[in-house]
Write a structure and sequence with these properties.
With 454 residues, this protein is α/β, with parallel strands linked by helices. 41% of the residues lie in helices and 15% in strands. The chain has 17 helices and ten strands. The chain has helices at 65-71, 73-78, 113-123, 134-148, 160-171, 191-212, 214-219, 223-235, 257-267, 271-274, 277-287, 291-307, 310-320, 327-334, 342-351, 386-393, 418-429; strands spanning 12-21, 26-37, 50-53, 81-84, 153-158, 176-182, 239-244, 250-255, 373-378, 399-404. The strands form two sheets. An eight-stranded mixed β-sheet has the order 1-2-4-3-5-6-9-10, sandwiched between helices. A two-stranded antiparallel ribbon has the order 7-8. Helix 16 (386-393) links the parallel strand 9 and strand 10. Helix 6 (191-212) runs parallel beside helix 14 (327-334) and helix 9 crosses helix 12 (291-307). The two termini are 41 Å apart.
Length: 454
């Protein structure tokens, strides 16, 4: 029993020891942290559980179990839910880099090279960073499956977790009953290359929604023009703004165009922040002050530094995606976007000093599977938009792709129970063919916030 460590009735906690070097099967070991929520119903219990694969990469799945316990209560009636921290995350040999003490160090880059070097040196004392890839994670999933005694499993991947699910489908097809891929990132995507275009597309969708809303259009008739003016202001050079740091101290920091672009991209992830975008743009334009954007940037960056394993993040991205970006691809992929090539340059600098795995030949080839697969996308997702699910779905003959309009990253829990009902039907039928998805078309239209947040 998990007890006070995880206040969920009947939750079970444990660890499973695996080798860090799976191929050698010797040397250093890792204790994988596992949480199982047994099926709660008395009738119609199913033998095939759902493995929840977290995002990031770098988020520990066991840590999200409390949030998912309530959201997946109906699903949990029939099936066990299994969460475990991917190697390098949570309590499974966490590869975390220490947060910055000085707030200014969060700005001007995503990964400060000197900090990355220092982090690598510290982590190498208890980890070989070459053994923390998606393929290692997929094989750990199967080890956990066998240890818990499950013959076949259902996979629920969230964001990067969809990549892990697809790699598992390729490496362990016989053990997969079905998969739910929410916010799809296929192999071979070269993520940082696409971040600028996908974020620009999400912003364009959001501002079009504002123009199509009588309330928003009346309140902010020139918001698209105002945004361009803000970008042009920062293209002339960084500005000085004031934020409140984690200790509650007012601090003046230097805020750049790259910082601004990354702030906007972060706000677009979900409606909690995205629906404030027009009013925050208008406020910054009217006062010629980026402080509110900079404060949002700092709070998000500081929170990610606390909750995401940046060592695992770099071990995955620097092995599987960044090395495959070609110089000739950069301008066509980023020209005319508010982020430009800022993130690509930053990722490349970080990966240049990170010890990375050499991935297997053919890893980036498309993944084919005949399993029933449900793919879910938000129309204005800034990181895993529908186009990536459509690409992956071409190789899933028994797959179905559903798009939720006016939503960002992650749609199952944000769509008023509609998508969760579709997921339940998908699991019951073991098929994506005849699902009733009509409720998606009648979801209420999200309302823009016309006043600034507190």
């Amino acid at each position: 029993p998990c007890g006070e460590d995880l206040p969920i009735p009947d939750a079970r906690c444990g660890t499973l020891t695996v080798f860090e070097d799976l191929e050698r099967a010797g040397g250093r070991t890792i204790d994988l942290n596992i949480v199982v929520l047994p099926a709660t119903g008395q009738d119609r219990r199913r033998a095939d559980p759902i493995f929840i694969l977290a995002g990031g990469p770098g988020q520990g799945a066991a840590g999200v179990a409390p949030g998912f316990a309530a959201a997946l209560a109906a699903v949990n009636q029939q099936r066990d839910l299994v969460f475990f921290d991917q190697r390098g995350t949570g309590k499974s040999n966490y590869l975390g880099c220490a947060p910055y003490e000085d707030a200014q160090r969060y700005f001007g880059h995503i990964f400060e090279p000197d900090h990355v070097r220092h982090c690598r040196k510290q982590l190498e004392e208890h980890a070989d960073l070459r053994f923390y890839t998606t393929a290692h994670h997929a094989d750990d999933i199967d080890t956990v499956r066998r240890w818990l005694g499950y013959e076949r499993i259902n996979l629920w991947g969230l964001s990067y977790g969809t990549r892990a699910a697809q790699v598992y489908l390729r490496r362990h097809p016989e053990a997969t009953r079905s998969a739910i891929l929410e916010g799809v990132t296929p192999v071979g995507q070269r993520s940082p290359l696409n971040y600028a275009y996908d974020a620009q597309s999400a912003l364009d969708h959001l501002l079009f929604e504002c123009a199509s809303s009588a309330r928003c259009a009346e309140a902010f008739p020139k918001v698209r023009h105002q945004f361009r003016i803000l970008v042009d202001r920062l293209r002339r050079g960084p500005v000085q703004v004031t934020i409140e740091d984690a200790g509650g101290t007012q601090q003046q920091i230097t805020y750049s165009l790259g910082d601004f672009g990354y702030t906007v991209r972060g706000m677009l992830y979900n409606n909690r922040f995205a629906l404030y975008m027009p009013v925050v743009i208008d406020d910054a334009y009217q006062r010629n002050d980026f402080s509110r954007f900079a404060t949002g940037y700092y709070r998000r960056a500081h929170a990610l530094a606390q909750g995401i394993s940046h060592g695992l993040y770099l071990s995955v991205l620097c092995a599987e995606e960044v090395p495959f970006i070609e110089d000739s691809q950069i301008v066509p992929a980023t020209e005319g976007t508010f982020l430009a090539d800022y993130l690509i340059r930053d990722y490349r600098q970080a990966c240049a000093v990170w010890d990375r795995a050499k991935i297997a030949e053919g890893y980036n080839l498309p993944i084919h599977s005949d399993a029933p697969i449900l793919l879910l996308s938000g129309r204005r997702d800034p990181v895993t938009p529908p186009r990536w699910a459509e690409q992956a779905a071409e190789n899933f003959p028994n797959g179905r792709h559903l798009i939720v309009e006016r939503q960002g990253h992650g749609v199952a829990r944000a769509a008023d129970g509609c998508v969760m009902g579709i997921v339940q039907e998908f699991l019951d039928q073991d098929s994506a063919t005849n699902l009733d998805s009509s409720c998606i078309q009648s979801l209420p239209r999200p309302q823009f916030n016309l006043e600034l947040p507190n």
